[in-house]
Amino acid sequence: MTADAVEGVAVAVVGGGAAGILAAIRLLDVLGAADRVEVVEPQGLLGAGIAFATDDPHHLLNIPAMMMSAYEDQPEHFASYLSQQGKGTATTFAPRFVYGEYLRATLARAVQSSAAAFTHRQQTAVRLQPGTGGDGVAIELDNGETVSTDFAVLAVGWGSPNPVRAPSRQVAIKPWSREGDLAISRYAGASQPIVVIGTGLSAADIVGTLARQGCTSIVAVSPSGTFPAAHPASLQWPDTGPTVARIAEASRASDLIHRTRAACAGGEQWQRVIDGLRGYLPAVWNNMSEVERARLVRHVLPVWEKLRHRMPPHTTRTIAELQANDTLSILRGRVTEHDAGRLVVETPSGPKTLNPVLTIDCTGWSRDPRRMGRGLISQLIDDGFATAHGPAIDLTADGRVAGPLHTRLWATGLLIGDQVWENSGVALLRRQAARVADSLREAAHAEGAR
């Protein structure tokens, strides 16, 4: 706890995934005696969310432990946890559920060392409004109760799934859901074709799961026709030195590309450069005009997603082996029809028809803020307490939600959308958590909330 910690403040964090738990940890660090932090999250298991809820030990983090610390000033924190648990070292790509365990253990230690109280309210927030008399925030829950708090932090995660875009479609199942798990189990050992739409990290995990369950004919479909790049055999810390700092000074998308290529051509390992740039993303974004930001998203982001979100070595080997033994084939193209088990894929050589027994849609979840938070954000916008443009709600520079509740309401995680280009990596989530906690503490001091 800091020496100038505020007292008598009640803060509600809405959302109990990684973003919410990292925010709660930082708030517990700065709040003091008589203060209270409450996480409002319907799931009983905090820190899981979609990313870390899987219990499959083959579903691995795509980042080594040395880059996954909950604390920016303690980069070895997660690696030390793994070592103490006998589960790995700094270069380990740990199972995703282990990271969820780490977040819960870190939260428990923060609760133990903080003078502030902590509670987990296992309900869904359905509406936020100004508190009685305009003071604080009133959070309505799905059980009819209302939580009154001085301040609130929105840390809700992915919205409802994106459907497969096709003129006619039978919606494919999504992974990481009970429906998806049951369907995959039902078709264990199938020799008939199973189609996985997408070739990202989720698709790679699902392909591996299907193969381990004995499925022998898997087709992955995506516009790129490629899975993410692999991590290098010899892992190194990200480059955060002057080379990457110079790249981050670029004010145009084309200049960013040119400087990055020049650094790699000069002998820098491209993976270290990309990883190092992540810490500069907010600055890179702020350096650019709206026109250049649009170019960045249109031309750079698709390549960035493939280079940044790399597969762990084990997953890379699995995908290669499945291709080599003809269990997995990759089809480059876009789904144009999906109806009653029939898919038409528009490929560079023309349309191709597939007749799978099961289609699994790994194209991702919605980044439309209106579809996040189980309807909460849509309600907040409709009530006039927030506005949204594209994949982001409008925020002030210190993370407050722009609008009538800006003195009481902050946001972190996916809700900040494209305001910092990338918003879901742990390195950025922990930085956002620190920003929100510091801003909230200053706001409480400014108005004498004790």
UniProtKB/TrEMBL annotation:
<dbReference type="Pfam" id="PF13454">
    <property type="entry name" value="NAD_binding_9"/>
</dbReference>
<protein>
    <recommendedName>
        <fullName>FAD-dependent urate hydroxylase HpyO/Asp monooxygenase CreE-like FAD/NAD(P)-binding domain-containing protein</fullName>
    </recommendedName>
</protein>
<dbReference type="InterPro" id="IPR036188">
    <property type="entry name" value="FAD/NAD-bd_sf"/>
</dbReference>
<feature type="domain" description="FAD-dependent urate hydroxylase HpyO/Asp monooxygenase CreE-like FAD/NAD(P)-binding">
    <location>
        <begin position="12"/>
        <end position="157"/>
    </location>
</feature>
<dbReference type="InterPro" id="IPR052189">
    <property type="entry name" value="L-asp_N-monooxygenase_NS-form"/>
</dbReference>
<dbReference type="InterPro" id="IPR038732">
    <property type="entry name" value="HpyO/CreE_NAD-binding"/>
</dbReference>
